[in-house]
C-alpha cells in the first residue's frame, strides 16, 4: 500500500476540526490498511518512499496522527490505519529551556516537530545504556506512549545540570524537573 500520493490522501482524511489541536487518535479504531513506505530515522527525519519529506508543515501534521500500539507505530485517521517504520523514537528533543533551579527547577523540551513538553511525573525522563558501547540514549515521554530521543547536545545540557542524589544507598547523578528527580546515571567513582 505504498502508492504515490497516498500520504496526501491520508492527510485529507483528518477532520478539519481536528487540525487545530492534537487529533484524538487514541479514540479512532479504523481497520488496518497495511504498511506504507514511511520511515522516521533516528535523527528525526521523515522519509516517504525513500525520500526525505522536506515540507515541515506536512511532517508536523503527520506527527499529530502517529500512534504506538505495543512496539508498532501507525498513522491513524478516523477511516484508515497504516503501519510505518520508526528507527528509534518518533520525535527528537532538539532544545531545552530551564526555569528555576534546584528541586524547583522545570525542564521544558521542544521537539523537532515543535511539540513542547515539561519533564514531570507524567512525562518522565529515562536513559537506556547500550550494553556493548556504553553509550546512553536518553528519552522524554511526549504524549501517550510516544517518546522523544533527547539530542546529544541537549543531553550534554542535562549533564551540566546534574546533581548527586542517593538512590537505594547508591550515589546517582540526575536532574530535577517539576518536583521530580530523574536519574541520569550512577555517580562515577
Automatic annotation (TrEMBL):
Chain ranges of the DUF1285 domain: 23-89, 90-184
Family annotation (InterPro entries): DUF1285, DUF1285_beta_roll_sf, DUF1285_C, DUF1285_N
Origin: domain of life: Bacteria
Protein name (database record): DUF1285 domain-containing protein
Organism: Zestomonas carbonaria
